[in-house]
Request: fold
Amino acid sequence: MPIFSSIAIVTDRDVVVFDATILPAIADAVVNELRQRTPKAVRYLVNSHWHPDHAGGNDEFAKAYPDLEIIASQRTRELMEDTASVYVKTLEFEAAQANREVDKELKSGRTPDRHQLTPKDRAELQSELTLGARFLAEFKATPSKLPTLTFGDTLTLFHGGRELRFLRLPGHTAGDVAVFLPAEKILLTGDLLVYPVPFCADSHPSAWIASLETLSRLDARIIVPGHAQAQPDASFLQLVLDSFRSIRQQVRDALHRGLTLQQTQKAINLAAIRTRFTHDDPDLNAVFDGNFAPIVRQFYDEATEGLEQYQ
Ligand SMILES: [Zn+2]
Reply:
């Protein structure tokens, strides 16, 4: 799975880029690659949502292309403004935690599942540490440039011979934007879909179900999730939708039986769902446990308006 991705849509006049990647250096690499492929300038850059791995390169694109407009939902712009100063603390916390785990592996020479580290594993762990430290330093040094063109629920751009429909469809965050090209039947989902395992850290799960239902009605021929890996059909979208619906129902059943959050987390049958995403690949199982499983708590909190705090 590519970690970061930008998608370029070339029009008759210029280029529209969907998502800005994370670091200035990575955005620069995208700009250089684009310049090798087309002499056309980037006119519009889209931030699918506020997470820094989708908006962190805004500054570099704006420097490279002075006429750039950065498009996002109004909610995403607000979230970027409101999280910019505190998100550093989250990143510092996560970086410290990740560093501790990597240090432990490097010192013991073994992975968490007790396999001996190969030289390649060591090199990867080292580069993880370096990238993490660099991201934190660059994030602190340059807050992302904010979007310059925002909208409420929908925006349609008829530009350079193409039609681009922007749809605000909350779920992964409150401000997610998907882009649909009806002539080409191509759908860019941002992190409303992340293949092969959805990322559900701070989501709005019921809204997410409704948004995926909307996407499934678009009749897209090609679906491009966040972090790339284009899908030739809607089967992955359907799998995510079915899984969310199943968990929502299981959480409701647990609530009707009077279960606390902890009891609910034990009662939900996540193993069966996990297999459908990971086919029991151990690395993917770990990703699933970290990135997908939090959705149970979010459904619980949503259904009870946060009663877990008082259990
Ligand atoms: Zn995200």
The chain has three domains: 7-75+147-226, 83-141, 235-310.
